[in-house]
Amino acid sequence: MKIPQRILPAEWEQHHSILLSFPHNGKDWPGKFDAAKWALIDFIKKVVRFEKVILLVKDANHLITLKNLLDRHHVGYANIQFVFLETNRSWMRDSGPIVVKKKDGTSEALKFKFNAWAKYANFKKDQLVPDKISEVLKIPLTEVYHRSRPVVLEGGAIDVNGRGTLITTEECLLDSKIQARNKHFSKEDYQAVFKEYFGVSNVIWLHKGIVGDDTHGHVDDICRFVNQNTVVACVEPDTTDPNHLILNENLNILNSARLENGNSLNVIKIPMPKPVYFEGMRLPASYANFLIVNNAILFPTFNDENDKRIYLIFQTIFPGREIIGIHALDLVWGLGTLHCLSHEIPV
What we know:
This protein has 347 residues and is an alpha/beta fold. The protein has a single domain (6-346), classed as L-arginine/glycine Amidinotransferase, Chain A (5-stranded Propeller). The protein is built from ten helices and 21 strands. Strand 5 (98-102) and strand 6 form a beta hairpin.
């Protein structure tokens, strides 16, 4: 079998660092910005226990404010690299670069076109994140094109096992009317991009994402690889909840799916938290938005009875890793939590 020119490592493989961006305005958390900032500080405190953090800050004045918050929360700076860059938002999973390994063992930062989920107008500053990170890491930057067009793709739209299989949703990538990323792209177009840039030979297409998902179908709120043969998949037993049918349909697809080697996919069902509302809006609260860091799993909690169930499930799935819950009720008002805010940089 031909060796791929590039491979996108799985998230559980060793990291060089985690990319984060500290917000400098409260637009993503209206009315809850102070609470969200403290939740982010707690997130940073947990990550730096296990690996380096590359932390984007607007400017020197913003850094002074941030260091004051870190000091008050007793977070040391030894494992933090501060980088000056003003961003529109802090969702590094989607605007940050996707770093791949090349056949010769070197790394490459891929720059996909970011257009704020084909929904918002302010994203020009976010488009500079991959350039800055490739400069910081001293690795080459490649802009991704297909059929002479820049390809729009967010990191939250995909998940890989690092062996040739990728999971995504039709709602996110193939909808031609709502938040259309790449108009006139077919499954074959995407699969060609995934093969060339990620070393992916096998794509599992789920249908839809959860209710309240501002991105229109990101997979990292519904299904995640936890090893090369296994995924966790969200389920909703309440038949009156609109997520029940959506997640059941995806579960059926996963149960019949095959991996790149032809083997069946192992599927572990995980519950959803009870619906989370704020100011009349259903929020995309999901335990699937966890982050794998070196030697630990950081997962969002929602003051829900299922918080403990998820903790015990993750203990079984990830033996040898510390399992840490992080309060995310304030973060999810920004329509994302831990995985959305971060992006791993492979070793």
